[in-house]
Design brief:
This protein is of the alpha/beta class and 360 residues long. It has 12 helices and 9 strands. Strands 7-6-5-8-9 form a 5-stranded mixed beta sheet, sandwiched between helices. A 4-stranded mixed beta sheet has the order 3-2-1-4. β8, α8 (233-242) and β9 form a beta-alpha-beta unit. It is globular and about 65 Å long.
Length: 360
């Protein structure tokens, strides 16, 4: 009997120690979801029920910025990684769908408002049924707005606040080049105030979103807004004014929605112990503006690496739709639109004469 009592006491002493180690043995691994967008890198880390997110503009060097983000203490010791967006092994559609499943709310559509493009994901019974996109011109996109307020030497918060004090004025908003010139002329000639320009830019962005939503050809009662532009209260106000019957919802996860969905997918199926980056055919980053490429192939490679939009607009007859961003923009700023057109034509061995209607 004494031997049995001694054994019982030994077991009682051991059990608490085993119970203390159980949480460590059954703890969920920390999972990181990354979304590489046109102008920014977003990352979300999930550690059990806790989540942390970070977003940073990459300025054409996404892998360099991604490494900087993951080197932060918040992402230290992460176990598994998933990457969506450009060069990611997970599609944005899959990541958004997983995040929608986690939210569980009843939405009719998701409006993804990013720096380079606006997309609308139509939903049927909670599943993505169709994806709608606008033209590829940068005018009316989030990055174009950031560029213009930078020229006005305003912060994003100041621009949004002053936008509410302006009114809509005529502005050539279909093409980024024409719009930029129109803004400059109106401000220099005092034909419009900065508040009017800001208000008109927000109105133009809202029109693009509305035109996409109208393509659904059905009533959309609740639309979830995601992406960096989801934090723009002036744009949201314009959307709600144009479509009062539609409820535009912004969630705390909206800013990094794709990265969050990617982290959830990684948590569901942990596979990779480091970010899986798919190879690309072009250069990893844009060349510096001080050394522009002089060949058509060089311009097209720069466009593939990360364009900010067509210089001439998607329906222009100039024939320079491939010449986007990077060296082409630097060439345009130094020599002008007509010189850029002639340079593009000569690079292709074509006629360098400027067609009628492209002399603006």
């Amino acid at each position: 009997m004494p031997h049995r009592e001694e054994l019982r006491q030994t077991l009682l002493n051991i059990l608490p120690k085993r119970q203390n180690t159980l949480p460590q043995e059954t703890a969920q691994p920390s999972c990181v979801g990354v979304n590489i967008g046109a102008i920014s890198v977003k990352a979300v880390v999930l550690r059990g029920d806790n989540a942390f997110s970070k977003m940073e503009n990459h300025h054409g060097r996404p892998l360099e910025v991604l490494g900087k983000i993951l080197a932060g203490k918040e992402f230290d010791g992460a176990d598994y990684f998933g990457v969506s967006g450009r060069r990611g092994h997970i599609s944005d559609v899959t990541a958004i769908q997983r995040a929608l499943d986690e939210v569980g709310s009843d939405f009719d559509a998701v409006a993804s408002l990013g720096g380079e493009s606006f997309l609308v994901y139509l939903l049927a019974a909670g599943r993505i049924s169709n994806v709608l996109s606008h033209n590829k011109c940068a005018a009316g996109s989030g990055e174009f707005f950031v560029q213009q307020i930078g020229r006005m030497q305003l912060t994003n918060e100041e621009a949004i606040e002053r936008s509410f004090m302006g009114k809509v004025v005529p502005l050539a908003s279909r093409c980024s080049v024409h719009c930029k010139s129109d803004i400059t002329h109106k401000l220099n000639r005092k034909e419009a105030s900065p508040e009017d320009i800001l208000h008109t830019l927000h109105d133009s962005m809202a029109d693009k979103v509305v035109s996409l939503l109208e393509k659904a050809q059905r009533q959309l009662y609740r639309t979830l807004v995601i992406g960096g532009v989801s934090r723009n209260t002036a744009l949201l106000s314009a959307l709600r004014e144009k479509l009062p019957s539609t409820q535009f919802v912004v969630l705390p996860e909206s800013l990094c929605f794709e990265a969050w969905g990617c982290a959830l997918l990684t948590q569901d199926d942990p596979r990779y112990n480091s970010p899986k980056i798919l190879p690309q055919s072009g250069p990893d980053s844009l060349p510096p503006p001080s050394s522009p490429s002089r060949s058509g192939a060089g311009h097209r490679a720069a466009a593939a690496a990360g364009s900010t939009g067509c210089l001439a607009g998607p329906r222009s007859r100039c024939g320079i739709n491939d010449y986007q961003g990077g060296p082409a923009r630097s060439f345009y700023e130094r020599h002008g639109r007509i010189a850029l057109y002639a340079h593009a034509k000569r690079s292709r061995g074509g006629d360098a004469r400027v067609p009628q209607g492209c002399r603006a």
